[in-house]
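Q: Structure tokens for this one, please.
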Amino acid sequence: MEGLGALAIFAIFVFVVFGMLALAKGARTVKQYEKGLITRLGKFHAMAPSGLTFIVPFVDDIVRVDMREQVITVPPQKLITKDNVTVEVDAVVYYKVIDPVKSQFEVQDFGYACTTLAQTNLRNLIGDRTLDETLVARDMINSNLRHVLDDATNNWGVKVTRVEVQKIEPPRDITDAMSRQMKAEREKRAAILEAEGIKQSQILQSEGKKQSEILKAEGDAQARITRANAEAEAIKLVSTAAETYFKERAETMRRLEVLNNTLAQNTKYIVPSNSSLVNVLGLDGITPVAPKLPDGQPSGSTLPAGRSI
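A: Here is the predicted structure, written as tokens:
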């Protein structure tokens, strides 16, 4: 009886230990950013949510798949451009698992497969462009490579979110030549800009001088016109004043001039009995005489001896 009791106690102890081991083996935890794939006897059985999950011990197994966005580094490789220049190119690939079942069972090693695919397509993309086109088409290369990788990895339950080419490095001699070329281009642009500046400055100075001469000429012309108008107006005013104030005197002077010229000739004349006119003429020796008319009435004046009427 004592042997049976000891055997029973041992059996209970073994059972308890086995149960604890089975419980420890069947209790699994899945983190929040992971998905658990339960496989039973090597075949996919169910998907375990985040948190504590119990599986059948020694029968089921669980595979955890990281659902966060991850990055793969494409190691540097030497590629040949379309114009036969060797460049060293590397890249990084950002991806995210969208179907954990496919990512686990459709591809053996996604990292290796994605890296190899990226290197192969980089070789094609760089080989279709010259060195200058490659250096300025970085964004286009990134876009094309991401599109190719995304199409290929779609069957693997993975989404390629972004691809970045980190460096495109040509040989040292090519880099030095490009540096000299860029320096020459910058010096050329600087010389052109300086020449354009001098040209514009000379044009502006010439235009300013031209405008100044035009304005000066217009000012001189306007001044001459104004002076001429003023002189014409002054002459007009003088003429008007002379005509107004000296018209009568001028007529008298014209009569006297005519009379003086007439008296200078040895001819008989009839002189009006205007003593003031005689005095003006300076004929002091003239004595006015009233001639007799047929009826015996005196009329007019007579001249002294030597000047008869």
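A few notes: Residues 172-245 form the longest helix (74 residues). The mean pLDDT is 79.
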